[in-house]
Amino acid sequence: MAMKIKCRSILYKLPAFLLILQICSCKKLEEYNQKPELESLQQGIKITAALGYCASVVMSVIEGDELPDNVIFEKNTGLIYISIDKNHPLPFNKNIGDIIIAFTWSGRAGLMSVLFAKIDLLGGNTKLYGLHLMPFMKRSEEEGIYAMFEKQDIIVGNGSDTLLDMTNITDVVFNTKVNQLNSEEPNDAFVAVKQNVWFINIDQKNTYSNVYDDNITVNGGGQIVEAKGAAGGIMYHAMIGTKINYSICNMNPVSGFALTQNFKFGGEPYIDLGNSLLSFHNTCDGKAFVDVSTGKYLGYIHKYLTLNLN
Fold it and tell me: Do the Cβ atoms of 255 and 218 come closer than 8 Å?
């Protein structure tokens, strides 16, 4: 808005023969001063934080540790029920509802399926129903829990009635999914943004009944569900070393980096309309800092953006 006012004040003072040139210049400045669009990144932070929460609870059930008081494990059915309310929130989400988790475990690794009941995890018009067969493992007491998921594991829309049925999981399916944990984690945001794979590391810090003080670190990126930018492009995101600790901050990740990128719709070759590289900080203000910004978002370099995670 400030740029528009400045341009208009200049226009009134210009001679007629320069008017057209100045109008074009102002429009060009406005084109490159668009605010970076964060919908895809918001989706990535919310779903990885939620699944880190779930993986922590499941591991506590498997190892017989003390459970949070909003968690019930029914041994007869093998299902875990998590009640989400104001006193027991899901990280970066204000909804009240339930989470139901089914899992199977063998040795040091397993698979879990997660159903979000009455929880609008992402907001907007797309309903994220749950996640099917997410592999996870316990590396060691020092290294903690390791989990991952791919875009094709995400169930949107009305979901599936068999999402929580683990009885038909063959050894081949189990081993194939668990072996995905051997994939190399990305360390380059510009590579991760096209992969549609997210890796989650969870340090429970030996406080099993308190999932909110877990250190959750995320590497990966792509799209959770399709997010369209104002310029007609498709929004992607990546996170590298993005650390979440909800007890320290319930408004933003506390360290690490993220990339938000706007690709023109229409398939390959990708046409980059603009991208922003962000860094997170342990000041709990709900913001991220724009370290680098290009294309349509060039004017937002070295500014703070509000993440609006809640």
Answer: no
Token pair in block for residue 125: 């018009």
**What is the C-alpha separation between 36 and 264, in angstroms, rounded?**
15
Question: Quick one: DSSP state of residue 215?
Answer: E
The Cα–Cα gap between 278 and 292 comes to: 7
Both structure tokens of 32: 């490159």
Give me the torsion for CA of 183, 187, 188, 191, rounded to 10°.
10
Q: What is the CA radius of gyration of the chain?
A: 22
Of 11-20, 68-77, 143-152, 156-165, the range with the lowest mean pLDDT is: 11-20
Residue matched to tokens 């007629």: 16
Helix, strand, coil tally for the chain in percent (to 5):
25, 35, 40
Domain map (residue ranges) of the chain: 39-306
Residues 6+ apart with CB under 8 A from 3: 26, 29, 30, 33, 299
Neighbours of 219 (CB within 10 A): 24
216's CB contacts (< 8 A; 6+ apart) are: 48, 49, 52, 53, 200, 201, 202, 203, 243, 244, 245
CA atoms within 13 A on the CB side of 51: 32
CA 228 from centre of chain:
16
Q: Can you point out the beta strands (E) in 204-254?
A: 215-222, 233-244
Q: What is the DSSP letter of 218?
A: E
**What sign results for the dihedral spanned by CA atoms 28, 31, 32, 34?**
positive
pTM > 0.70: yes or no: yes
Q: What is the pLDDT of residues 203-250, one digit of tens each?
A: 999 999 999 999 999 999 999 988 887 767 889 999 999 999 999 999
Any idea which residue has 């000041």 for tokens?
Answer: 283
The CB density around residue 133, as the number of other CB atoms within 10 Å, is 22
Cβ partners under 8 Å of residue 127, min gap 6: 120, 156, 157, 158
How far, in whole angstroms, is CA 248 from its chain's centroid? 18
